[in-house]
Amino acid sequence: MRLVGAVWAVLVCASCQQILGLEEGTPLPTAPPECVQADECPVAQSACQARACVDGMCTTELLPAGTNCGKDNVCDAAGACVDACVSSGQGCQPGEPIWAKLFGEQQAQTIHAIAVDKDDNVIVAGRFAGRIDLGGGQLLEAGGGADLFVAKLANDGKHIWSVSFGGAGDVGTALHVSVLGDGSVVVAGVFSGVLELGNTLTAEGNDVFVAKLGASDGSLLWSRQYGAMGNDAVVSLDAAGTQLALLMNYSAAQTIEGTDAPAPVGIGWAVIALDAAAAAVWPAKVIDAADYTSNMKVVPGVETLMGVTSHEDGSVAVTGSFIGDITLEGMKVRNTVVARRDGFVALFDKAGALKWFHGMQASIDGAVAPVTIRRDAAGVRLLVQLGKDTVLAPLVTIAAGRNYMAELAIADGSLQSH
After folding, report:
1. Nearest Cα to Cα of residue 34 among 51, 49, 55, 61
2. What distance in Å separates the CA atoms of residue 234 and residue 250, rounded to the nearest whole number?
3. Which of 33, 164, 212, 237 would be a feasible disulfide site paired with 149, CB 3.0-4.6 Å?
4. Cross-strand partners of 68
5. How many Cα atoms are found within 13 Å in the side-chain-facing hemisphere of 352?
6. Global model pTM greater than 0.85
């Protein structure tokens, strides 16, 4: 009986295939799974489809046209994931905006920093008074003065999260933002008085803060504070992999990440390297610029003539300009011309050892103004603004009024290209 039953079952199945017009051996269609809610259904196979539960059966629905479905891609009306420029019907030229957002109201509200993560999500940070809606449907409201904010937008401009921090009165502002390898956001700025970040920071003068926020919701993971009596300021911030580098200036003697920083003659700078858990990677490096006339001010919009960059291999490069002498790790670069502003560039390895330190010498009445610095696998890339004819010793001599881009060798800082 078992054999006959088995043969009968095969004959019935074969007959079904003939009736349905299927070739022999073709699997029969299966009914959709039953469901009560959509999350019980199989995940949709297309980035432009969403699983759904309709009349107790699993199905899929097309996502609305314009929904982000990948890097620079959106869903079209037919459910295909296409290039955003193609979907617009107009095409995009290099450098042409894909999207734009407007935030703010009548009171003073300013974005001071912007960063992009590995998924092309955009992170912005700044300062606001009154109320501001950054796309989340909720208004961030300053606590009596001006507060700071950080927001994350998807690569199609849609709101992911936004948070604000502050205290009573005008507390401070977020001046720099960067992203670690895991997507968490690092923000740095200055504040006075009491700053509430989820924990409480109290400053005696103007102090520096750096905070790490969660990638998914902007929640505070940790914060650090640097400063003493007087005015301290964050100059530059960069994160890569599991490490971040912070460049600050200070005006009074203090201990910075295990290093005793003496009171500077003019103004002092400190290079700080932290891991993803806020621990110092190595003791802070103090750059003492004797007789320095500061070009750094804690004023939004004032040109920053210094920069720091961190690389995934743990190295940190720093650049800046100075008047007088400048000393780093016992090495001195001397400027013998009164009121001439020269430049410098240096590289530390992952253990904090100084690999090289070069001065950039301007002509007698010239100036060297480093604008930005980046470190990649090829070398250290440096953008410098020049006034008058300038000798970028030991690099090259070029004419006045130029923006100069140089790539320096990682091994010794020698010029590779410009």
Report:
1. 55
2. 9
3. 164
4. 74
5. 19
6. no
